[in-house]
Amino acid sequence: MKSCKLxxxxxxxxxxxxxxxxxxxxxxxxxxxxxxGLGVKDGDLVFDVGANIGMFTRFISKKAKDLTIYTFExxxxxxxxxxxxxxxxxxxxxxxxxxxxxxxxxxxxxINYYPRAIxxxxxxxxxxxxxxxxxxxxxxxxxxxxxxxxxxPKFLRKPFTKLAHKYMFxxxxxxxxxxxxxxxxxxxxxxxxDFLKMDAENYEWQILQGISDSDWKLIKQIAMEVHTNIAxxxxxxxxxxxxxxxxxxxxxxxxxxxxxxxxxYMLFAKKxxxxxxxxxxxxx
Length: 284
Prior knowledge:
By secondary structure, this protein is of the alpha/beta class.
């Protein structure tokens, strides 16, 4: 199994080094899951949905003591790397690792696995035509992601992006198991999800549909990516916002950096009675 040293000096096992380092930058340096007052305290229970190689779990484990963390990663090859990465912190927290995906019902399906860009692996693939359009319209943000893109002349941007997509999205179809989140709640008998992190690559709506009405009261905070770069995804951000508002959350979403270029947003939600001070740009 391949490994590298992260900027903080820790060892990280990986499949795709670029994805691992990019995840580290977003999670450890940009702290994308901690905005707008979200966080954990000692003894909290965390669900890491779309755990990938375990970068978020390693990050959140440094934020409080005696956490209980449930991780969900459906692709076996990625799950094995996650297990290795989390061996380093198992002595300080309680873990339960699930080699499954979450969705609106229990079923066996296939996922698009991209070994060259593992964090983009998805049950529902992105709309490449829409991704191309977004990239060309937001080239300044592409430069933030790929610095040498600043040197690509305008007439070459479209063919360059198409070639990049063809390289990155060379896929394998992998069978996986999917289960509703409420089934996991019932099975594990959890009575509170203090922090629900989701990075489900285009499957967030299905996961939210797998939460029964009675279980919404257990969820205190949500930090998630919302991917609008799929067929029919134009209204997905508002659709999810409306759902969370109906479940008594205050909702905030960011559109920074990569979001402009790819149609990915960060959404944060917190049960209304947990807010201690008003936030700007809050949806209620």
